[in-house]
Amino acid sequence: MADSSSSLDAVLAHVDAQLDDSVERLFALLRIASISTDPAYAGECRKAADWLANELDGLGFDASVRPTEGHPMVVGHDKSQDGPSVLFYGHYDVQPVDPLSLWVHEPFEPAIGEENGRKVILARGASDDKGQLMTFVEACRAYKAVRGALPVNVTVLFEGEEEAGSRSLGPFLEATADELKADMALVCDTDMWDSETPSIVTMLRGLVGEEVVITAASRDLHSGMYGGAARNPIQVLGDIVASLRNSDGSVAIEGFYDDVAELPAHVAEQWQRLPFDGAAYLGEVGLGEPAGERGRSVLEQITSRPTCEINGISGGYTGDGFKTVIPSQASAKISFRLVGNQDPAKIREAFRAHVRARVPADCSVAFSSHGASPATTIPADGTFVTKALAALTDEWNKEAAIAGSGGSIPIVGDFKRKLGMDSLLIGFAQTDDRIHSPNEKYNLESYHRGIRSWVRILDRFGQT
Amino acid sequence: MADSSSSLDAVLAHVDAQLDDSVERLFALLRIASISTDPAYAGECRKAADWLANELDGLGFDASVRPTEGHPMVVGHDKSQDGPSVLFYGHYDVQPVDPLSLWVHEPFEPAIGEENGRKVILARGASDDKGQLMTFVEACRAYKAVRGALPVNVTVLFEGEEEAGSRSLGPFLEATADELKADMALVCDTDMWDSETPSIVTMLRGLVGEEVVITAASRDLHSGMYGGAARNPIQVLGDIVASLRNSDGSVAIEGFYDDVAELPAHVAEQWQRLPFDGAAYLGEVGLGEPAGERGRSVLEQITSRPTCEINGISGGYTGDGFKTVIPSQASAKISFRLVGNQDPAKIREAFRAHVRARVPADCSVAFSSHGASPATTIPADGTFVTKALAALTDEWNKEAAIAGSGGSIPIVGDFKRKLGMDSLLIGFAQTDDRIHSPNEKYNLESYHRGIRSWVRILDRFGQT
Fold first, then answer.
1. What global pTM score does this model have?
2. Hey, how many other C-beta atoms are within 10 angstroms of the C-beta on B144?
């Protein structure tokens, strides 16, 4: 054990000693303008993929660039061990940079800056996701440099279309399922709990999207001729929207909470202790009062509790000025965030039944589905989770958090459905990293200790 | 009396004998493409004004074309009598004709056709409003031809911007108030009760328009990050919309019905007798069930009862597909049709108070006014009304109806406010005249008996 511990220390010391080189390599990747949504940058995407494959190759991975109908995938294997296997996922593509005028530095000329006394890496993709994926690459580099070999079998998958809808990902995973399947997926594309507290996201809410169109009269009517007697579909829709929520903020659809479990006791207890300022979280966007279920904290409302949200509504005249129209139709886009064992199909049907029961006799309703995914929950006491939590706690000298994500992260569902594999979401980004916005940054500490965190995690995974 | 009656008969006989010429004159006016909204037709509008002034001049009116900032007005006076004075209003401009491909005849090449066994005049403007205004001109022509002089003092006002917002009308009325003011205004721009029953509109609903904007968060939010805890302004707006109506279809705003009177007994009694098929009226636009106040007929709901309608609603993502956004704002355009003595300012304030009481603490609401006009009611037992009803009943051999208009008719408000003058709305159009649509028509009977109706009305007005 003394030997194992001291050799881990040697790997970590190597990380520290080589940090400048690690930053230089990240800068080289950041200089590639791999914007995936704009066809003009397809060559840059290919360049980033080549660059990554070359790096992995240099580390002794069996690495290759795999063409798709869109931007290529990068796959690398280092499977020399007897132990468990992991699949690490990141994406090398980045968001567009406009408006360019708001950038202080050129987005593809990375630089070290300083913010609030912390060193930061400034560039498009510094945080999302080039900086994050490179923490893992650099951890592998240090581990192999000091120990000669990785402690577990590692496959790396880098995607180039994450910011553009991941169109090629599904087919690619299906075609390479046997090759990519591992005991656990590791995804580095999330935030820390706060700047001092590492976290693993083990709960992701699912989603059901529905579009509802209410039709009343066979054509738009003039309210001077029909106003009073004609059914107004906006009024009908308003009545339906109002009926979806109880006055205590809970969702009023029958059976909606049937398959919603309470948080595991140790997670609930941890959330009581962990710093999270709900008032500040809402205050930052100009809100003062949690609007969800009464008696639930803001943290629960945004991560562990299900929701019903109206995401769009439209009907009648919405331009400048006024028209006294009674429209024929009105429509709304409504989504549900799901948790626990809520079944998307069952929730969708319960919603539709709720609406149908409220549509007057001379109106019709049409529904369209917009996606359905169940919530994802990784048992918080599994071996990989327990080891990763311990490794993160060691590195950050602070109890690592079990976290939930209020939104779905599609790759997790894809890995589950297509490869039958759970995912651990471990990331070192901060909420103030300005991802998708001008002046994106990644804390130098996130990068440095992110690398060290992966060294510790891989090391723990390798221990029996 | 025998003399008066027989000379009226002579005028009516003249109308009958000269009908072909009357139709020919209307055709000449219909051939002028006086589309007011399209600047390309400004010359045609001027031409129509000149044509009308010339006709009036030929009848012995002191007629002139009056320039405005838009299309000109035509004013003609025949004030040789001691008796009462009337101001007759019509408009010579017409709606655009597109889509031209749907017209069976060229819109500005008038023709006589046949529909359901009736002869019809086919042309843009045949009904709205050239055919209607010419009924009055031709009545004056016949009266003067047979009797030498009109029985009352007549001023005629023809507008050329009615289909384009009547921008010049207000300033023109203010500038010519002394010249135009009469004992009663006559407006020929409305429908008959049905094809056999003439009517006078004596009640017009007023209107209050309001735009409501609810603001919650300081920016649009992602429902994956904030969904559950963030106040959703669409939900708030839905709750407000739902709160505006009681389950019996009545408006739920406090004090809304305070100044609403019941119909005069003789009108209520007449409405019981008159043919009006509420089910057919709604059925024509695909509706089956009156949506207004329970216990009120469709006719009451659309004319004599006040309403609250949502004319537009908008918030969040309304394009194709789906976005899980929680918008910062949502807005609605809401209007109230007013009756009786409802005060627009009081109704507006009651509505705003109703909304403010329902806006959560961390939301703000902004209101904008979009027009306010009180209801207009001409006492149904006044001298002019009584005489006109009798004249119409004589001509059509059917009791003339006292009618309400569900929508406001701006000219009536203008005459009241700027000239202190009530208006009688007497028209001979039919609901199937396709005004504003391709293949507009005017029943030849409407034209013929419309001329005869005005002869009788003027004659009655001239009797002491």
1. 0.85
2. 16
